[in-house]
Amino acid sequence: MNTIDLEKEFQRKLDAEEKIEPKDWMPDDYRKTLIRQISQHAHSEIVGMLPEGNWLTRAPSLRRKVAALAKVQDEAGHGLYLYSACETLGVERDELLEQLHTGKAKYSSIFNYPTLTWADMGAIGWLVDGAAIMNQVPLCRCSYGPYARAMVRVCKEESFHQRQGYEIMLTLCNGTPEQKAMAQDALNRWWWPSIMMFGPNDADSPHTAQSMQWKIKRFTNDELRQRFIDATVPQADILGIKIPDPDLKWNEETKHYDFGSIDWDEFWAVVKGNGPCNKERLAARNKAHDNGAWVREAALAYTEKKRKKTAA
Ligand SMILES: [Fe+2]
Ligand SMILES: [Fe+2]
């Protein structure tokens, strides 16, 4: 097929809601966009283990520790599915990791905030995993097959994360006044960074229109942010704690919550590497990667040994 026919076939598949698969022809920019998005997503899963790893040794009970361990392990699994999905686009995992470790690649800025108290484990599960679900459920219908399929399992696991976080919040809010104050403090610190997770406003998001056309994205950043806020406000009411936004109020006309303006200067500062924990996170990732060098070497040596044996 010539290029025009290939482009037509690609468009036909998009229009028919058929998946684009690794061996199919695709425009270079579609491939590049997916590599950027999927690798950033994979990095976010892996770096996302760090803030919570901080609390694994200090979980208040065996039950909480087991749930937290399971959750952090799930995030490692999400990273692995996503690196694999990304590799189907013709990029090497080493290259992706190199980009992360040198600070060239981005990951979700939310993970550059510190986890100061146990209540942060609740707030992260409730808000951060909750926002991730809002973002990722539509990605199960992404036009690129391997990404869409990876998202199905990821989303099921994210919903367990959200519930375990909310349950921590519920327990604290039904506890002593000190525990409820901890929950409120965690909400105060995580609310704004969580709603920044949906990315810049649509007007300042240059890739959105093209990604929607390619059916990589199904909703814009602002649409998803609004959905998240609408879903989360009643949950805060049940907890009996207050979202730290004086402008937040139900709008009877739009049937949505209106909310205050987001501090985009803070968002961009964190994205550009100047958040409270950017340096710490990158250092932890690099250290873990360096410490794991012997495991990778041993795995390669074992594969080589097996290959020689089979050849003989
Ligand atoms: Fe995840
Ligand atoms: Fe999660």
Structure in words:
It comes from Reichenbachiella carrageenanivorans. Pfam families: PaaA_PaaC (PF05138). The protein has 312 residues and is an all-alpha fold. Helices cover 68% and strands 2% of the residues. It contains 13 helices and two strands, in the order H-H-H-H-H-H-H-H-H-H-E-E-H-H-H. It has helices spanning 3-15, 28-47, 49-56, 62-87, 93-101, 119-136, 145-173, 177-196, 208-213, 221-239, 264-274, 278-291, 293-311; strands spanning 249-251, 256-258. The protein has a two-stranded antiparallel ribbon. A hairpin with a 4-residue loop joins strand 1 and strand 2 (256-258). Helix 3 packs antiparallel against helix 4 (62-87), helix 4 (62-87) packs antiparallel against helix 7 (145-173) and helix 6 (119-136) packs parallel to helix 8 (177-196). The chain is globular and about 70 Å long. The termini are far apart. The structure holds fe (ii) ion (2 copies). One fe (ii) ion is lined by residues 75, 129, 132, 158, 161. One fe (ii) ion is lined by residues 45, 75, 78, 154, 158.
